[in-house]
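User: quick one, sequence for these tokens?
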């Protein structure tokens, strides 16, 4: 079993999740059960799957959960684009969050590659 809290990729994805929660708290109230909920679930799915994978018995299982985390990062990337296009976030916020997502996704790829 690995301590996920020591992984830089988990730490960064956790911070991203906190930032997404803060950002979406400013969205229109009618999006609470729509885009807000989806973005919060997508963002929290990234560190959640990293943590769950670290609790598994093998590198193969961990890699499977890392793949799910990468998918959640891609999902969040689209949702951010949608939020920008709906003018819920500005371009500066979008670029900052998008850069963080891409950095995390690269870190997940790198971590997974080291496991094989």
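Assistant:
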């Amino acid at each position: 079993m690995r301590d996920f809290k020591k992984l830089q990729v988990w730490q960064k994805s956790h911070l991203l999740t906190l930032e997404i929660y803060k950002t979406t708290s400013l969205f229109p109230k009618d999006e609470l059960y729509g885009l807000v909920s989806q973005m919060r679930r997508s963002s929290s799915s990234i560190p959640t799957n990293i943590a769950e994978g670290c609790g598994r018995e093998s590198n193969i299982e961990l890699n499977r959960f890392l793949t799910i985390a990468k998918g959640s990062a891609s999902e969040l990337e689209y949702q951010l684009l949608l939020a920008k296009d709906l003018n819920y976030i500005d371009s500066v916020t979008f670029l900052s969050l998008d850069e963080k997502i891409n950095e995390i996704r690269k870190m997940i790829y790198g971590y997974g590659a080291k496991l094989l």
